[in-house]
Design brief:
Length: 446
């Protein structure tokens, strides 16, 4: 096992990793920007180093500073969490050059699955279902011919994209030409790679993702699926596991497809295979996230597997602690992402000082957070305050428990999304479980 793990991240995920390491008995190193000097992960880690100014480019994305902190502290492994360095193949390569273990997949696997056009081709070769689409678009006229063949609407995507950026839907040849240009510009701006590809756009499917864990010995397991269909501008709002739209037969097929996808990428570590599910229960590979997901906690709740601990165990060279037969999924879990945003003002970010903070509790309730009363939410990062997760034997019991927990949760001093979730969790369409990615287009506060 590792002597010391540096956590190249911040916020609740940094705390999540510190807790896993502490239970294993591994000392931890926190790195932080000036804006995060008073964050909990700084005080709870074994040691901590400031690596730069407030903005991410000067700190959390500063590779020389992160590597220097690892070398100075004697850390022999780096956990990237999610976001920031978690899907940077170049960072993983630099870690290797300094004899530091990157707790994640190999640079080769990240490059393969990070390039979405290449990933689609790899999945098709392994008979994992994909939507009709193209490779990298080099000729707009050829793209128009392909779009006519697939049938409109189509969606243009940045091959290096993520987080909903570099994506646009086209309903006509004119829109297609315009959106290819715009997507290329966005892709260059956000990812440093202007390449885009196109695929048939499924109107209002379900967004289903399967949690996988793989070791270096070719063993792969899955922990069932999560439903992430309720989104705003391609950003997930609420997740649940398992999906209310997936029956046992489809679940088995999804799990098998996810395992094949991981094997095709020669994957090692924790990852998520994302699919689109249509109303006829047909599913199609969308992409792979080669990292820990924000919503991993609800998969932990239904599987009783500590995903972060297993991730560290695998990275240290050990075999998986489980076989697929060991995994017994139980009950239902829901996660709400509580953000410092104002739902009444189009979810405008609302940084500021929290002057009152009371978390909910009770059986089946989990709160992953890095904030406290007196904590100042900086304006430089994602506005996530906490992840509120609930588990219960059935979906309806879980939904009611979540409503109770949301009503108990008190955060004062800043605007939050708590009122939004209190309303959403009581929405008739959500209660029915019969929703899709178009949910927020028709959602109205009661």
């Amino acid at each position: 096992m590792f002597k010391k793990v540096l956590i190249a991240n911040r916020g609740e995920v940094a705390l999540r990793i510190i807790r896993a390491c502490r239970e294993i008995g591994i000392p931890t190193v926190a790195v932080y920007s000036q804006a995060d000097a008073n964050s909990l992960h700084v005080s709870l880690a074994t040691e901590a180093y400031c690596i730069g100014a407030n903005k991410s480019a000067k700190s959390n994305l500063n590779i020389p500073a992160i590597i220097s902190a690892a070398l100075i502290s004697g850390a022999d492994a780096i956990h990237p969490g999610y976001g920031f360095m978690s899907e940077r193949a170049d960072f993983a390569e630099i870690c290797k050059e300094h004899n530091i273990t990157f707790i994640g997949p190999s640079p080769e696997s990240m490059q393969l699955m990070g390039d979405k056009a290449t990933a689609r081709k790899t999945m098709a070769a392994k008979n994992v279902p994909i939507t009709p689409g193209t490779g990298i678009i080099t000729d707009i006229e050829e793209a128009k011919k392909s779009a006519e063949k697939f049938g409109y609407p189509v969606i243009i995507k940045a091959t290096a994209g993520g987080g909903g950026k570099g994506m646009r839907v086209a309903n006509t040849p004119e829109e297609l030409e315009q959106n290819i240009t715009l997507c290329r510009q966005e892709a260059e701006k956000f990812f440093g790679n202007p390449d885009v590809y196109m695929e048939k756009y499924l109107v209002n499917p379900r967004h289903i993702e399967v949690q996988i864990i793989a070791d270096k010995f070719g063993n792969v397991i899955h922990l069932g699926e999560r439903d992430c269909s309720i989104q705003r501008r391609h950003q997930k709002l609420i997740e649940e596991a398992p999906s209310p739209a997936v029956d046992e037969a489809t679940r088995k097929k999804l799990g098998e497809a996810a395992i094949q996808a991981a094997l095709a990428a020669n994957y090692e570590g924790v990852g998520t295979i994302e699919f689109l599910l249509d109303k006829d229960k047909n599913f199609y590979f969308m992409e792979m996230n080669t990292r820990l997901q924000v919503e991993h906690g609800i998969s932990e709740m239904i599987s009783n597997v500590d995903i972060v601990r297993e991730q560290i165990n695998i990275a240290s060279g050990n075999k998986l602690s489980y076989t697929q037969d060991d995994i017994k999924l139980s009950g239902h879990a829901i996660e709400c992402r509580i953000n410092a945003e104002d739902p009444e003002r189009n979810f405008l970010p609302a940084p500021g000082e929290i002057n009152g903070y009371i978390t909910p509790g009770g059986f089946g309730v989990r709160v992953d957070s890095h904030v406290y009363s007196g904590y100042k939410i900086p304006p430089y990062y994602d506005s996530l305050i906490s992840k509120l997760m609930c588990w219960a034997p059935t979906r309806e019991e879980c939904r009611r428990r979540m409503y109770r927990a949301l009503k108990e949760y008190v955060i004062t001093g800043v605007k939050t999304t708590l009122p939004f979730y209190q309303d959403l969790i009581e929405n008739e369409v959500f209660i029915s479980g019969n929703f899709d990615t178009g949910f927020m287009n028709t959602y109205k506060k009661s």
